[in-house]
Amino acid sequence: MLAALTIPGNKSMTELRPWGSFTILDQGVGYKIKRIEVRPGHRLSLQMHYHRSEHWIVVSGTARVLCDGDSITLHNNQSTYVPQTKSHRLENPGVIPLVLIEVQNGEYLGEDDIVRLEDDYARIP
Q1: What are the pLDDT digits (tens) for 42-57?
Q2: Distance (Å, whole) CA 56 – CA 104
């Protein structure tokens, strides 16, 4: 279900997920910046990270965010912070794609630092 593609004219790599896609826009020591798109009615796994925090900024659409048991709804130009080791989930309850920018900070930013606690797409080992 995982695929990668290159968008013409863009040096970034986009990775497809069952819920949508993400594109790494920039990265360096201690940070990574992604553009995330979540399809309407879909959500990411309930997860946590040992080595990074995340800051999410909504570009378009509506985001429902669950973080450490609290739920908030965000719209264009609103943001939230997800501290390291806190359980969290991102969901698109709307009818248009949710687009957001994610800024990761931490000592290790690999995709294998995702600890899935619940998943709609059977990706928990």
Answers
A1: 999 999 999 999 999 9
A2: 9
Residue in the structure block whose two tokens are 């719209």:
75
- 4-31 pLDDT tens trace: 444 444 467 899 999 999 999 999 999 9
Q: How far apart are the first and last CA of the chain?
A: 15
Cα separation, 31 vs 45, in Å, equals 22
Q: Coil, helix or strand for 73?
A: strand
CA–CA separation, 31 vs 69, rounded Å? Answer: 26
Supply the Cα-derived Rg of the chain in whole angstroms: 14
Closest CA relative to residue 34, chosen from 105, 115, 122? 105
Q: Which residues contact 15 (CB under 8 A, 6 or more apart)?
A: 2, 3, 4, 21, 22, 23
Instruction: Sort 72 into a burial class: Cβ within 10 Å, 0-12 / 13-18 / 19+.
Output: exposed
| CA distance to 8, 11, 58, per residue, from 49 (Å) | 32, 27, 21
Give CA–CA dist 2/15, Å, rounded: 7
